[in-house]
Write a structure and sequence with these properties.
By secondary structure, the protein is an alpha+beta fold. It folds into 2 domains: about 1-125, Beta Polymerase, domain 2 (2-Layer Sandwich); about 125-185. It has helices at about 5-15, 25-30, 55-60, 100-110, 130-140, 140-155, 160-170, 175-185; strands spanning about 20-25, 40-45, 65, 70, 80-85, 90-95, 110-115, 120-125. Strands 1, 2, 3, 4, 5 and 6 form a 6-stranded mixed beta sheet that branches. Strand 4 and strand 5 form a beta hairpin. The relative contact order is 0.16.
Length: about 190
């Protein structure tokens, strides 16, 4: 299987089970910016006891072997479940539990069904603004580059910059945002 096939299978099963979710990570940022190579599929998933993450993990059992213990995100302290596809080559599937973090709740409430070019299909995505905020919040090199690419492709003039600036202030990441904006070429 290819990453595209694994991703589409994960999204299709989440839809079939009516598990509230959205695509995050490199696939989401690539939908708004510049697609980059990735070997994983990242989903933020509702932890509703009936329609939640366990049901999706169980349904994916024939495609993905998930670790028995959750890992903890060091930014929000939410849990994530990491699995490896049974395909060759193997791909990583990470399911992040939607938890009480105010930004994650806002991001999830603003998600929408949008076309994802790399997948050639629609999927539940955060807004472009929320992708920028989350990538800046994570702050790893590839995340900063993803945020920069989204800002460059979308253009700050088309984005709700006040929304982005408010969340960056709340996360104490305003300097990262300013550095990214300063690095963008003029129009």
């Amino acid at each position: 299987m290819t990453l595209l096939e694994i991703a589409c299978a994960v999204f299709d099963r989440a839809e079939k089970l009516e598990v509230p979710h959205m695509v995050v990570g490199a696939i989401a940022s690539g939908a708004y910016g510049i697609a980059r190579a990735t070997r994983d599929v990242d989903l933020l998933v509702s932890i509703d006891p009936i329609l939640g993450i366990r049901r999706l993990m169980d349904d994916l059992g024939d495609l993905v072997a998930f670790e028995h213990q959750a890992q903890f995100d060091t930014i929000t302290w939410g849990r994530r479940w990491v699995g490896r596809s049974n395909s060759s080559p193997p791909f990583t599937v990470e399911l992040f539990e939607l938890q009480d973090d105010p930004f994650c709740a806002s991001e999830f409430s603003r998600r929408g069904l949008r076309f994802v070019p790399i997948l050639n299909r629609e999927a539940w995505l955060p807004t472009a603004e929320d992708v920028v905020i989350q990538k800046i919040r994570w702050g790893r090199g590839k995340d900063i580059e993803d945020a920069r690419n989204v800002l460059a492709v979308q253009g700050p003039e088309t984005l709700d910059m006040a929304y982005i600036e408010n969340w960056c202030a709340a996360h104490e990441t305003t300097q990262r945002l300013e550095d990214i904006l300063a690095s963008l070429p003029p129009l």
